Structure to design on (396 residues):
């Protein structure tokens, strides 16, 4: 079997309108500047008639045996990198020879070992796992050694939800009723908000604890936007609320800061991160200095499913745990159901983004009563739902 075409296609669809898709947004590193902190969430465009526009780029890799592997969702920059830098490497290659293709892609783009270049390699690798699963007639997790279980628990990520405390309590009760045992929130406040910002974070966590009960796992995602004093203050003042982890409190390159936090937080909560790190070498640097309790590399960003298996081995050998960041439910399910529950205890499900990123898929993966069942679709289950596609535009 050989690769005969590599295509990036932009699909257009729509969601019902009537209210904004995003109620709020996460804090961003640029929010240290007031003019950026004041900006609200970037909404989906509104179409004539009031519907919300869904516009997404997919990667399709075609083979001479009629099998097509698919990855979604790519940025325009990723799509350009695939077309400009990787297409010539892929054409004529054997899609079953995953190690060779990954190594060729990595070596052919020496400046692509991180950032957009590695995101492009990741997209290709995931599409190739989709091909392999279809070729052998099994879900990707079976090729990776699974299934290790029939179901996996998922925690709910509330990215985009309202941070009004009454809304937080109502949302938390709703998620508990749906069977979720853990909830992650995304505070808008950070170091430039001073102690008032710390107080707002504490009140947020207290509201979640009040509504969710004593056995709910509560996590916070700072998205690389806090500093050491703010993180330490939040950890100290939420200790009685039993916060499970603080995620990405510092900028990804601030290894010295993370090392300091390991001492200063002092076991009050766990430190999680790694989603904005790339490849086994990037994660190995974090592990070497024991900077995190929990690792969250993303298969869509950090090297694809192939590289996540190598990262998982490193994390396991270091005695830590690995919960891949939830950009792709399909890729994360493949990894989760092929991994020991001791290494990958659960999955992340982004309540707003996961359905959006699966808008054009015929068989989206959704949690039921707080768990996800092992996928049965061959490959990664990336078959398109033609009824959701209103227009399609090939990208050159």
């Amino acid at each position: 079997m050989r690769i005969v075409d590599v295509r990036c296609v932009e699909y257009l669809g729509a969601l019902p309108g009537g209210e904004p898709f995003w109620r709020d947004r996460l804090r961003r590193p640029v929010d240290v500047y007031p003019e950026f902190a004041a900006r609200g969430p970037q909404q989906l465009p509104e179409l004539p008639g009031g519907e919300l526009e869904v516009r997404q780029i997919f990667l399709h890799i075609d083979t001479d045996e009629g099998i097509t592997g698919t990855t979604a969702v790519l940025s325009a920059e990723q799509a350009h990198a695939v077309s400009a830098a990787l297409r010539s490497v892929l054409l004529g290659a054997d899609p079953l020879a995953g190690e060779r293709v990954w190594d060729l892609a990595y070596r052919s783009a020496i400046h692509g070992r991180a950032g957009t270049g590695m995101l492009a390699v990741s997209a290709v690798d995931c599409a190739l796992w989709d091909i392999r699963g279809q070729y052998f007639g099994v879900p990707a997790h079976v090729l990776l050694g699974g299934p290790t279980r029939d179901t996996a628990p998922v925690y709910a990520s509330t990215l985009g939800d309202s941070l009004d405390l009454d809304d937080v309590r109502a949302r938390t009760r709703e998620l508990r009723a749906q069977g979720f045992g853990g909830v992650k929130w995304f505070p808008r406040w950070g170091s430039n908000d001073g102690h008032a910002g710390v107080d707002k974070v504490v009140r947020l966590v207290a509201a979640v604890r009040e509504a969710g009960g004593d056995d709910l796992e509560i996590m916070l995602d700072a998205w690389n936007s806090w500093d050491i004093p703010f993180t330490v203050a939040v950890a100290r003042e939420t200790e009685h609320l039993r916060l499970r982890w603080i995620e990405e409190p510092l900028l990804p390159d601030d290894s010295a800061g993370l090392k300091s936090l390991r001492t200063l937080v002092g076991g009050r909560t766990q430190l999680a991160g790694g989603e904005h790190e790339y490849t086994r070498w990037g994660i190995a640097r974090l592990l070497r200095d024991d900077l995190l309790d929990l690792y969250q590399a993303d298969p869509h960003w950090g090297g694809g499913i192939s590289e996540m298996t190598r990262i998982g081995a490193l994390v396991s050998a270091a005695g830590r745990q690995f919960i891949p960041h939830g950009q792709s439910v399909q890729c994360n399910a493949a990894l989760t159901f092929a991994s020991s529950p001791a290494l990958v205890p659960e999955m992340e499900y982004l309540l707003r983004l996961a359905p959006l990123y699966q808008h054009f898929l015929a068989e989206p993966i959704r949690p039921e009563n707080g768990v996800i069942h092992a996928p049965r679709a061959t490959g990664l289950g990336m078959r398109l739902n033609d009824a959701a596609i209103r227009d399609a535009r090939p990208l050159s």
Observations:
- The chain has a mean pLDDT of 97.
- The CA atoms of residues 186 and 241 lie 17 Å apart.
- The chain has two domains: 3-138, 142-380.
